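Researcher: Please predict.
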Amino acid sequence: MKARECDLATLLQGTRQYVVPSFQPPYRWSRERRETFLAGVLESFRRHPDREIFFGALVLMPIESRPHELDKSLIVDGHQRLQTMLALLAALRDAVRARNPELSGRIRSECLLNAELEGYHRFKVLAGESDRAAFAEALGQTCDSLTAFEVARFFLDRLEQELDLDEDAFYAFLLNRLMIVRIDLEKDENPYPIFRSLQRIDSSEISPGIDSYQQFADDPGLMAMIAGGESDELEFKEAMIRRDASERDIERQGAQVVRSVAGFMNSSSEGTLLIGVADDGSIRGVNREYRLVNRGRANWDGYVLNLRNMLRSRLDIANAFRFYAIRRHTIGGRDICRIDIRPADSPVYVNKHLYVRSGNQTIEMRGPDLVEYVRRRWGESPDESASLNEEA
């Protein structure tokens, strides 16, 4: 663990993303707390512009990242404060957009977005699932919308009433005078003890998901990845088959895993599929599937053998194993199957259908979209099997 003081400019500089854990509560600062915060910041700016303001602690843990140039961290503690600060910056961007477009553009590129990246990778802070769409709209487009993050709209309304505000100086004040104690955990360090101690200090932000951090003790790196939630490069599958599945169900559900692997192979960046993890990030494990998948070898080895055979027979590409690697993680005695997948060098079809990863979903490409995607992705026209898919 490393702790150091830094200003907001240092925290946000470069290509980086801070991810709110899936088990944290939604943003919940009250209207009174927002008003107190903004009034305090404005008063400090006007009366003591050279003084620093302590904005609290931010506890971070590294997450494996794709694309690799993205410096990605899980917010173990402090996400409400950080979201509040970026909401204020987004509001300032919108408040000055018409009369000071240069400053508006700087705020957008320096504090809110990773300009060279796409999708959710664009955002400096990736909010939890319940807040994600609204917060992303406020950061990427505008705060002045009924669907945007409510606190950002609140700040915009207040800033538009500050007619005498020196906007450039206020922006510099926010970046250079708001100080944060940044605590960086190692990727193999259990964050639970430090999170627990911080929650005792700041009782105003006790999280109902606090005990979820205990899971990090077994495999902190993996748990940090899971806590970040599903994304362009990460998908969860609770199971490959159900306990009560018929033979037909086993065939169908196995196909879901095959489609997910194919979707990552057909995408332009690497990805990971975790089997044994529910949509909400809770650990189910694949142990209960061992006997269903391979009665003769009801263990991890038999499970992987079945999985490899299924991928080899259903993925329409030579030597499919070149593009994926399977490994096991064990959390609380439950095995998780991890499949790391890299982009294939030609289209990968499943029964003459082509799947790709889009956001946090695997979708099928059809018709003109299929033709254009294959041309753009591999620089070629779809083969005959794709044409059959288009006709279907």
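Model: Residues 234-391 form a domain with the Methyltransferase, Cobalt-precorrin-4 Transmethylase; Domain 2 fold (CATH 3.30.950.30).
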